[in-house]
Design goal:
Strand content: 25-35%
Number of helices: 10
CATH topology of the largest domain: D-amino Acid Aminotransferase, Chain A, domain 1
Distance between the termini: 36 Å
Radius of gyration: 21 Å
Largest sheet: 5 strands, antiparallel
Number of domains: 3
Structural class: alpha+beta
Number of strands: 18
Helix content: 25-40%
Strand order of the largest sheet: 16-15-14-17-18
Order of helices and strands: EHEEEEEEEEHHHEHEEHEEEHEHEEHH
CATH superfamily of the largest domain: ATP-grasp fold, B domain
Shape: globular
């Protein structure tokens, strides 16, 4: 029986979202195939092995996986066995996992940082590797690669703090002239719509940019598109598959963090999305191209904007570790594509082991 280390929490603004996703994963892993070891990452970055994973109630997120402080745990990067060894410093207690299932979102978790640690530890893990995770998390880099791959993205400007401090007025003038209003402002390296604001005038734009800079070292400003929000789930390594399409219908002005997680009536999901067969095939093919262009593996959710009136579609972003509650879009899309939540978890673990075996065949000496 494989020991699966479910990593959750994290040092990011999406910490609570992760606890919610982790509760669903722990509850649905196949007990006949896997033993579960929950490893919570506190907000300060400390790791805590949970001896008895406990699902508890949360005022906003329903059920979450509790994260208790359990000592000072170290990761053995030089272990001689296949997998990952965790050692509690004071007691010397050792915990071993065969594979890691990261159920984490945001900075220090979804951006390649955690994946690099797991690579050093030599442990198989679910999801994209260092490069795919880092690229997918950086909206600016991802947009450039998607554009160069011939895929449509929304026009944008990237703003760095030094440029903002030195030539704020010039940047504001350029953005207003090129895009007009309204605009969307986003931290370049965050997810779950953390720090995202809609700006309808210059004052709101200034406030949005300076707010977003609290969450990321660079900010992107995008032209607002009057659109429908269409999403597609991708699953696989060398030969990925795509799900049916789904549509997010926000009941707020846009699909904000509050609409996603705080307001239970903030949005509704339509699965499958109501688009023509031909357009569905086009968007699904574009999702595959994006997945490959951004070096993804294991899984990702590709989000599109479908412009009203023209049916032109733009790739908004890719999520390499999407939300994983039983009502999240990624597992719901696969459920609609005849892959149950439990089977999806098993498939992701199999893909992680497959990729790990492939990497082990690579030479590391001349």
């Amino acid at each position: 029986m494989l020991a699966v280390g479910v990593l959750y929490g994290g040092k990011s603004g999406e910490h609570d979202v992760s606890l919610c996703s982790a509760a669903s994963v722990v509850a649905n892993l196949d007990e006949k195939k896997y033993s579960v070891i929950a490893i919570g990452i506190d907000r300060d970055g400390s790791w805590h092995v949970q001896n008895h994973p406990e699902i508890v109630d949360h005022p906003h997120f329903g059920k979450v996986l509790a994260l208790r402080k359990t000592g000072k745990w170290l990761v053995n990067h030089a272990g001689k066995t296949k997998g990952m060894e965790l050692i509690e410093r004071e007691s010397g207690r050792t915990i071993f996992v065969d594979i890691v299932f990261p159920v984490v979102h945001g900075t220090y978790c979804e951006d390649g940082t955690l994946q690099g640690l797991l690579e050093l530890a030599g442990v198989p893990y679910v999801g994209a590797d260092v490069a795919g995770s880092a690229i997918g998390m950086d909206k600016d880099i991802a947009k450039r690669l998607l554009r160069d791959a011939g895929l449509s993205v929304v026009p944008w400007k990237t703003i760095f703090p030094e440029d903002w401090n030195e030539r704020k007025d010039a940047l504001l003038s350029t953005i207003a002239n090129e895009f007009g209003f309204p605009l969307f402002v986003k931290p370049a390296n965050s997810g779950s719509s953390v720090g995202v604001r809609k700006a309808k005038n210059q004052n709101e734009l200034v406030f949005a940019i300076e707010s977003a800079m609290q969450f990321s070292v660079k900010v992107i400003v995008e032209k607002a598109i009057d659109c429908r929000e269409i999403e597609c789930a991708v699953l696989g390594n060398r030969n990925p598959q795509v799900s049916v399409l789904g549509e997010v219908v926000p009941h707020h002005e846009f699909y904000s963090y509050e609409a996603k997680y705080i307001d239970p009536h903030g949005a509704s999901l339509k699965i499958p999305a109501e688009v023509s067969h031909e357009l569905s095939q086009e968007i699904r093919a574009a999702a595959l191209r994006a997945y490959r262009a951004l070096c993804c593996a294991g899984m990702a959710r590709v989000d599109f904007f479908l412009e009203k009136g023209t049916n032109r579609y733009f790739i908004n972003e890719i999520n390499t570790l999407p939300g994983f509650t039983t009502i999240s879009m990624y597992p719901k899309l696969w459920e609609a594509s005849n892959v149950s939540y439990g089977d999806l978890l098993t498939r992701l673990i199999e893909l992680a082991l497959e990729r790990h075996r492939e990497k082990q065949l690579l030479r590391t000496t001349l």
